[in-house]
C-alpha cells in the first residue's frame, strides 16, 4: 500500500512539474508576442533608419526556441531512459556485492 501511494505521489509531482514547465514556456511566448511588436513599432517610429529591433527579437527568439525545445522537444525521453538505465545498473552492482 505504501509503495502505491508513493508512486502515485511521485507521478503527481512529475505531472505538476511538467505543467509548471509548460505554463512557463507559454508565459514566455506570450511576453515575446506582446513585447516584440511594441519594440518594432517603437523602432520604426523613432529611428526608422536604424533597425535595432532585430537584436532583441533575435536574442529573445533564440532563448524562446531553447525554452521550447527543453519543454517539449529533444531530450525528454532520452533523459528518462538514461536515468532508468543508470538506476538499473546501480541496482545490479549493489546486488552483486
Strand content: under 5%
* Rg value: 22 Å
Count the DSSP helices: 3
N-to-C series of helices and strands: HHH
The major sheet is characterized as: none
Structural class: mainly alpha
The low-pLDDT segments are: none
Helix content: over 70%
Oligomer: single chain
State the separation between the terminal residues, measured CA to CA.
Answer: 30 Å
Overall mean pLDDT? 87
Number of strands: 0
Describe this protein's structure.
With 97 residues, the protein is mostly helical. The protein is 88% helix and 0% strand. It has three helices and no strands. It has helices at 2-46, 54-72, 76-96. Helix 1 (2-46) runs antiparallel to helix 2 (54-72). It is elongated. The model has no long low-confidence stretch (mean pLDDT 87).
Chain-wise SSE layout:
Layout: H1 2-46, H2 54-72, H3 76-96
Helix pairs in contact: 1-2
Give a quick rundown of the structure.
With 97 residues, the chain is mostly helical. It is built from three helices and no strands.
Characteristic terms for this protein:
97 residues, mainly alpha, elongated
